Please model this.
Amino acid sequence: MALTNQYLIDLIEKVKDRNKGEPEFIQAVTEVIETLEPVINKRQDLVDAGVLDRLVEPERQIIFRVPWVDDNGKVQVNRGFRVQFNSAIGPYKGGIRLHPSVYIGIIKFLGFEQVFKNSLTTLPMGGGKGGSDFDPKGKSDAEVMRFCQSFMTELSKHIGADTDVPAGDIGTGAREIGFMFGQYKRLRNEFTGVLTGKGLTYGGSLARTEATGYGLCYFTKEMLAANGKSFDGKTVAISGSGNVAIYATEKATQFGAKVVTVSDSNGYVYDPDGIELDVVKQLKEVERKRIKEYIGRTSHKNAEYHEGSVWTLKSNSGDIKIDIALPCATQNEIDAAGAKAIVANGAFAIAEGANMPSTPEAINTYLENGLLYGPAKAANAGGVATSGLEMSQNSERLSCTFEEVDAKLHGIMVSIFKACDEAAKEYGMEGNYMAGANIAGFLKVAEAMKAQGCV
Model:
C-alpha cells in the first residue's frame, strides 16, 4: 500500500534508520503502519499522544550470555534475549524461541506482532518475546537441561507471574519449559504461573498443545463461512510438522478436509491419500525424526518426499492442486513465487499458523488475486489465548477440562474474526482481514497507552 500520510511515512523511515540490519522487524512494523493510515487520518489525538512513536520502540530489550557445559565437558556459550515490548494492557506475554537463526531482530519482530495478537484475544496480556541462538536439535536431554537452567538463571531476574510470562515457541517444547520452570522455582522459591505450556502435573492447561493449530482452523472456518465456503471436501496444504501443523492437520481433517502436505526444514511430504497423522506424531513428537522418514512408515503407497519448499506445490505427477493453504512453519516461508504457485494451483484461501510466514510480495499476491487471507496475528492467536487461560487457571489454583478450554478457545477465535471483519468494514476495507486485524489490535493498545500518559 502506498502511504500518503507524511507522519506515517516519516515514522517508517525513522524505524528503518534506528533498526538497521533487522529486516524482519522493519517488515513487521511497515505492514502494520501501512494499514493504520485510515485510523491515523481520523485520530489526531493518538498522534499528539505519541502512541505510534512509542509503540514501535520496545519498552525494554535484554541481551545476556548463556554459558553451559556439553556432554564432553566443554564450555559452550550462547546468547539469550528477552524483548518486553508493550505492557499497556497487561503483563508481557510471548514465547521463547530456541533456534540458530535467533538474533535481536527476530525477537523484536515477534514481540511487536505479539502486542497486536494478544490485544485481539481480548485477554489482558501485553506483548513480549524471547529466545536464544541455541539449537536443541541433536542435543542430549542433559545438555538441554544445562542450557535451560543457565538461560533461566538470568531470565528469572526479569520475569514473573504479574510482570512477564514466557511460553514455548520454535525449539521450546514441554521438555524445555519443564527444565526452565524447575530452575525458576528453585531460584525464586515460589510456585507461580510464570511460564505457560507447562506439563499437566504442575499447572499446565489441557488443550494448550493443540491450541494454535485448532485455533487456526477455528478462525479459518469462520472466515470461510463468512464468504459462503467451508473446509468440507476441500484439499489443504500445510507446511511444518510441529505442534501447529500437527493439530491444524487434525482439526482440518475433523472439519471434513483432506490435508495432503507436511514439511520440515529439509523438505516436504506429499500424500494424495491424505496425511497419516499418527505417523507424523510418532516421528515428530516421540522420536524427533525428520519428515522424510514418513515415506518408510506410512501405509499410503502414493506418498512422496521432495527436498525444498512445500510451496513449490510440485509432485512427481505435476502440480499439487489445493483449495486452502495453511503455512505453519516459520517467517517468510512463502515468497512471491510461492504465493503465485498457491494461486495458480487453485487455492481460494490462506490462513497463517506461523508468525509472519508471508513476505510483503506474497501478501500482495493474495490480495490482488482475491484470496481470503487470515493474517498470523489473528489466525494463530489461539496458542497465546490458551496460554492466557492457563495463567487464569494458575491464579485461581484451578484446572479446566479439555472441553471447557477448547470451547473458550473456539469462542475467542470467533470473536477475533468478528473483530477483524468489523474493523475492516468500519475503515472502508471490507474483506481485508489483515488491515482489520491490525486496526482492531492497535486501537485497544492505543487507547490504553493514551490513558496511561507518556510512559
User: Anything to note?
Assistant: The longest helix spans residues 402-426. The longest strand covers residues 75-86. The chain has a mean pLDDT of 97. The chain has three domains: 6-55, 60-191, 210-379.
